[in-house]
Amino acid sequence: MGTFFAAVQIGDTSGSRFEAVEAMADTGATYTMMPETLLRSLGVSPIDTLSFLLANGESVRRDIGETTVRIGDRVRTTLVVFSGDESHPILGAYTLEAFSLAVDPVNQRLITVQPLAMTAARAPDYRPLT
To answer: Taking the model in full, what pTM does it have?
Structure first.
C-alpha cells in the first residue's frame, strides 16, 4: 500500500485560527502527529505524556494535546501528538474516524465512510458484573 498526503488545517484550541498542512495519511498511526513548533505557535498545550511504539520497535515518550482540525469544510476536535520539528505531519486513525473518513490507497485520497454502531439491545444471556 502506498502512502499519500492530504490537505488538512490544524487549528488553535478554539478553532478560530488555522494553519494549512500536508499530512501523510497513515491508518497505522493511532493519533495525528504535528511538529511541536506548529502546535505551540497555535497555542496548543500538552495535556499528557504517552509512550508510543515506533515502526522500528523503539518506544518513545511524547506530549499530547487536544486541538481542532479542519478537513474540507468540517471541523473536529482531536488528540494530537507533539512530534519533532523534522518529522512529517501525520494524519492518524483517531482523527480520520472522527471525520468518518477512510484511506483509499488505490486512488490516493480520503473517502467518506458510514460510521459503525453496535446494537444497544441486551444479549439473551446478559448478566451484570458483580
So the answer is: 0.85
